[in-house]
Write a structure and sequence with these properties.
Layout lengths: L1 E2 L2 H9 L7 E9 L8 H9 L11 E6 L2 E6 L5 H4 E5 L6 H12 L10 E9 L3 E9 L5 H10 L23 H4 L5 H10 L1 H4 L3 H17 L22 E9 H11 L3 H19 L9 E7 L11 E7 L7 H20 L3 H21 L10 E6 L7 E2 L2 E9 L8 E8 L2 E9 L8 H17 L3
Parallel strand pairs: 5-6, 9-11, 11-14
Antiparallel strand pairs: 1-4, 2-7, 2-13, 3-4, 6-7, 8-15, 9-10, 12-13, 14-15
Helix pairs in contact: 1-7, 7-13, 9-13, 10-11, 10-14, 11-12, 11-14
Amino acid sequence: MKPLSPADQLFLWLEKRQQPMHVGGLQLFSFPQDAPDDYVAQLAEALRHHTRVTPPFDRRLDSRFTQPVWVHDDHLDLEHHFRFEALPTPGRVRELLAFVSAEHSHLMDRERPLWEFHLIEGLRDRQFAVYTKVHHSLVDGVSAMRMAQRMLSADPAQRDMPPIWALPPRANRREEEGGRASVWHTLGHLIGESGKQLGTVPTVARELMKTINQARKDPAYKSIFHAPRSLLNEKITGSRRFAAESYCLKRIRAVCEAYGTTVNDVVMAMCASALRTYLMNQDALPAQPLIAMVPVSLRRDDSEEGNQVGIILASLGTHLSDPADRLLHIHHDVKLAKDRYASMSPEEILNYTALALAPAAFNLLTGLAPKWQTFNVVISNVPGPAEERYWNGARLEGMYPVSIAMDRLALNMTLTSYRDQIEFGLIGCRRTLPSLQRMLDYLEEGLAELEVAAGIS
């Protein structure tokens, strides 16, 4: 029996029909060389023999003294969780994304372990796909990525590799169960460790007042209460649209070198450009710049505490028409936030983030304070494998994150890196954000604009 943390419980409380609270991932594979045409069917048959389900996939929800807990499921039905499916003809990426859009819209049965694994055949060019979804109360994006990487191998000759639900347990599970980087885990951790956090109050109060006073002095500086209202912050339906695409990391790094920025800065500038174009075409671009909530790495080279992750609110400069000005605006805003954290301890960072995001949490939970629009969109970057990976001889061609859209947060832009690519996964409400897939073209246009402005051919 394992009790759920306050943060994990929040994902259960937040869930409703129009707001499923699971995360997912789409992996695209090519057949191994000399594989038969029925390779995927043979793979499915082999996977059915992996009946020993390991943590956390063997757990279902239960209750002890009115509190939710994870317990081992003694009657786990693997056929319910592992599904072998085929795309309709002609088996294009369009049909694959439509399949993921529909599946990601469906709630999972809380009487069973909260995960599904879909093996998908019927794609063109001797390819197949894997779509996995897991409730966010069970794993977060970082831990899910780590487990997905453990399922893969650098050796194309390796066979008999288990699926993600049957991975051998790690000796140290902190890597997969700790370090969650989201607004809910930050707030939940603050509640759960309030005693330890009390000593940080003076520093946190001082830094928070600096932020508020700066906002009063400089109208261009974002206030934690005054992100503009936009289409992105309306109530949503339960129907999702998933859009995914790969972009060349070499191109992004060339822009970084030209402007002296980071890869994350350029990625955020691409997102800003795409959002600006999309909202302009809807005649709905706010006059004030959109604000993004961005998890960022704050690891210090001499730290012995492992990876440090903070959450910043960054202006996307969508009020600026020049793409270079927009990129430098983002770079400056992110640097200010990182500099603010540089003098703070991990506990102080945690408390500062929780207090700064408290208005957003209250509004997302209740909808009772629509003027407390703290941020408009989530932009999250989860690092992936730097080298080529395989699964039972099949080469991994791309891996795309599938995240969560919520009431008053209708779009989530999550990306990961793989080999020489940046893989974008956009998830949004189909009704609130029509023609969301066009944003993939706008991301490409945003990168091309920066290349032109930098004189990169």
